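Run: sequence + iron/sulfur cluster -> complex structure.
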Amino acid sequence: MSARSLAILEQHVTGCRRCPRLVAHREHAAAHPRPAFAGQDYWARPVPGFGDPDARIYVLGMATSAHGGNRTGRAFTGNATADWLIAAMHRAGLANQASSTHRGDGLRLDRAWMASAVRCAPPRDRTTAGERRECARYLDAELELLTGVRVIVCLGALAWNAAAAWAGLRPRPPFGHGREHPAGDGRILLGCYHPSPQNTRTGRLTAAMLDDVLGRAAEVAGGGRSRSPLVAEAREV
Ligand code: SF4
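>> structure
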C-alpha cells in the first residue's frame, strides 16, 4: 500500500474536529494531565492508525485513551493497555520491541496495523452512537487502503461492533473472545477481550489468551513468524 495515501489520510484524521464533545474532552485532558504526566506536551488531537502499510493483521481498539494515545499521539502507546498489547505483539513476531511508550521510541510493526474505532478520547471512555458513526469514515478509509489486511482483531465488543458495521454484517454477530466471523473479501473478524487493566488485572484476559488470539491472527494472515529480519533479530536479543 502506498505510504503516501496513508499519510494523506493521517492528515485528515489528525485535523478532524467533527465531534464537539470529544474535541472538548481531548483538550481538557491535555490541560489537566495526571500528576505523573505534569508538564508534558499532550498531543490532544485525533490519533491516527500506526503500523506496517503492508499489514495483514489490523488490531482495532475501541477509543483513544485520554492519557495514553491522547498524550503520546500514537495508538496503543503510553499506558497499561499498550504495555500488555505490544508485549504480546512482540511475542507473536508482529513488533520489533516489547514496549510502546512514546512516538520515536523505535517501535515498528511487522504485518500489523493498529488503530481505534473512535480516534479521540471520550469522557469516561464512553462514546455516543453518533460519534462512532462519525469516526467510522476513518476505519473505512484505512481498510480500503490497507488492501493486504486479512484479519481484524477486535479488542472488545465496541471494536467488534465497529468492524461488523464496516463489513455490513446484519444481523450483527455476537462478540466473544476468540470468536471468528467472515467479513467478506476473504477477511475475518476475530474477537479478543480488551487488554485494559480491568481485564488483565482480574484475570479475565491472561497473557496466554492474548497470545492465542494473536497466534490465530498470524495463522489466518499467513504465517505465524515474522518475515522481517529486523524483527527476527530484535527477538533474539
Ligand atoms: S472521534 Fe473521529 S470523527 Fe470525531 S472528532 Fe475525533 S477523529 Fe473526528
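>> summary
The chain has one domain: 3-236. DSSP finds nine helices and six strands in the chain.
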